[in-house]
Amino acid sequence: MSYNEGVTKVGIKYLGDCLQTNTTLLKLDIMQLCDGIIPAISYCLSTNHAIQQTSISGAAYISVENEHNIDIGLDILLVTIESNKSLQKVSIRCADVFDNEAIAISSCLYNNIVLQHFELLDCKMVDVKVRKDIRFSWKTASKICRFAHSMHSEKDLQKMLLEFVRYYEHYINKFEDFTTVHRMSKIINAVKVNRTLKTLIIIHCGIGDARAAVISDCITHNTTITQLDLSWNLITSKGAVDLFKTIQFNTTIQKLDVSHNEICSKLCNDGIIAISDCLKDNTTLHDLCVTTPDISDQASQHLASALRENLSLHTLSFHQYHRQLFSFDMIILSAIYYNKTLMKMTLPYPCLSFDFCVVQNEVERINMKRRRQEIDTLNVHFTLSGKLSPQ
After folding, report:
1. Residues 209 and 286 grouped into a single domain
2. Domain ends where: 87, 104, 125?
């Protein structure tokens, strides 16, 4: 159900009554909700025992008033999902998650006994007023940058740059104070004790390093999650170190996506080194997706050494924003020459070139060796760099 502004209260009532008694519908997608539909859908989910998947999008627009003038929003819908006995997959997209919604999500994860797949995609956890303040700060900072470019005096330029830093720090403080600090922690702490969830996907929700540490603690205690996706979440090398130290000895997670986070750079390769140490010891991780925008030769060697020793990885995907050193690809492929489990690999390449041909030849050399040893051949994919989107 999408873009349903034209549906009246009479139509909503008929729709709710129909869904309550339906026994064949397995998936319900709700997008851009109109006023009054949440109570109907909530009541439907409390009585319907057939629907197994639901997706809620555009919940930022939900604001319904009942006869008691109380706002009924996403939190009411989640309270219903909490007691539902058939829903196995819940996806919340493009929603504003405030205190009530965060409490409702955590309560749902605490108490629901059948939910196996939970997604938070592009959910904002910053109050509306704070977001406006942040936008204002960035607008001012952008103006300062433009003025700085027109300055000829080094003294004037330094003054403008200092002003920019002041506004940037103001933005960071606002962000850290009002975003996911306590709201995301509530949700993750609920996942920590959940015993049915197998897939946890949190994409583009501004987790950052602090909440990455909370997720690491969650993984230590949770024994059911097999798939974890934390892509596009502002996680740096500091957060990656905490996360991969935990996954290093984890025995349940099989698929992990931390792509499009800044976990490595020329100045700090601790994130890649932590990934390498994890791959040496972990025996259950099958799929790994990571972004490596800038990686040193030393870090490449660490990763190559880990791939030689790893005995569990089946799929390895590298995503990046900029073209990487050709030596990186060759180092990794040389390591895979000795790896006996990897079957699929994704390397980012902006175009077909001489480098591409050399890599193809290297892959063929690897596969010739594998055929002789009766090992599955390696399938290498080349993707355009920086074209993926969190949407």
Report:
1. yes
2. 125
pLDDT digits (tens, 9 = 90+) for 31-43: 765 556 777 778 7
Q: How much of the chain is helix, strand and coil, in % rounded to 5? A: 50, 15, 35
In this structure, are 216 and 357 located in the same domain?
yes
Q: How far apart are CA 347 and CA 13, in angstroms?
A: 52
Cα separation values, 129 from 75, 135, 136, 268, Å:
20, 10, 11, 35
Q: Which domain covers residue 319, as residue numbers?
A: 202-391
Question: 118: burial class by Cβ within 10 Å (0-12, 13-18, 19+)?
Answer: buried
Nearest-CA neighbor of 275 among 305, 251, 252?
A: 305
Same domain for 30 and 62, yes or no, is: yes
Average pLDDT, the chain: 78
pLDDT tens digit sequence for 292-343? 777 777 888 899 999 999 999 999 998 765 555 566 777 788 888 999 999 9
Rg (alpha carbons) of the chain, rounded to whole number: 24
Q: Which two tokens stand for residue 258?
A: 């931390």
Same domain? 243 vs 346: yes
Whether 182 is covered by a domain: the verdict is no
User: Where among 91, 125, 159 does a domain terminate?
Assistant: 125
| Angle formed at CA 131 by CA 146 and CA 72, multiple of 5 degrees | 160
3-state secondary structure of 325: coil
Same domain? 170 vs 102: no
pLDDT bin (cut points 50, 70, 90) of residue 7 is: low
Domain presence at residue 196: no
Q: What is the pLDDT of residues 215-234, one digit of tens each?
A: 999 999 999 999 999 999 98
- Residue closest to 295 by CA, chosen among 340, 329, 256, 250: 329
pLDDT score at 138:
45
